[in-house]
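Notebook entry, structure prediction.
Reason for the run: the old model in the group folder had no record of what sequence produced it. Starting over properly, with the input documented here first.
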Amino acid sequence: MRGKDFLSVADLSSAEVLQMVCKAKAMKAGSTARPLEGKQFALLFEKPSLRTRVSFEVGIRQLGGQCIYLSKDDVGLGTREPEEDVARVLDRWVDGIIARVYSHRSLEILSEHTSIPVVNALSDLEHPCQAMADMLTIQEHKGSFDGLRVAFVGDGNNVASSLSIACASVGADFVLASPREYRMPAQVLEEAKRRAAVSESAIEWVETPAEAVKDADVVYTDTWVSMGHENEKAERLGVFRDYKVDESLVKGAKSDFVFMHDMPAYRGQEVSEGMIDHPRSVVFDQAENRLHAQKAILAELFS
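New structure, fully documented this time:
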């Protein structure tokens, strides 16, 4: 792993992405290693969460560590107190920071002013822990990554960004279907394409969901209105109205496709009422695998 932190999937080499999936699989199989024995962690959350908070708290304790949860109101990161000061104070008390923030720059500032690992539990740019859980889920249901087509329908957001880099690392094709103005950031696309050139996979953008989903092995979607974009809700619901994943759309995928959503899911918006419980849905496997993927990440940082 590059450096002391895990802020992006790109902090792992392409080979390490696959190694981390294997490590997560071992964790899920019942590894009894406790590399966090005696370690203390701060869960610094500007945004609320169900899956991220519970999976990190449970995982840290299972690996022998302890944690304290700090909400937006507890800290006021960058408002009540500068990020630099928060970083320097926590650096004296804890062994690692798990941060769920609005701005990716906040993670970088925390990293620059600490000697301890900082883990990205979600930022506006990436959601790398989710991507690693997704890769574990895909491997469980598909076996090999080689030649798989992963179709992401909707906003080219933080989840899409991390997943594109992870797919490119292991040789899976990734295609995003989104409106032109909602494509992934340029720096993410550049990194994904660089890795895809090595793994001989493809990174694509198309405008129509049907084109993306055609012959797909994995069909993935996410909310159209991420936290921090609530003021754009009315506009986004209009822009994305033709990007709903429903039973009709997925008929274009392979017969043995799997449907993925990182949740929370807004039924009737990005996903139809029945897709979460569709026979090909693996969304609750994804949720479970957050625990195992994050344990693997922490074990790697503190091995």
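Summary: DSSP finds eleven helices and nine strands in the chain.
The old model has been moved to the deprecated folder.
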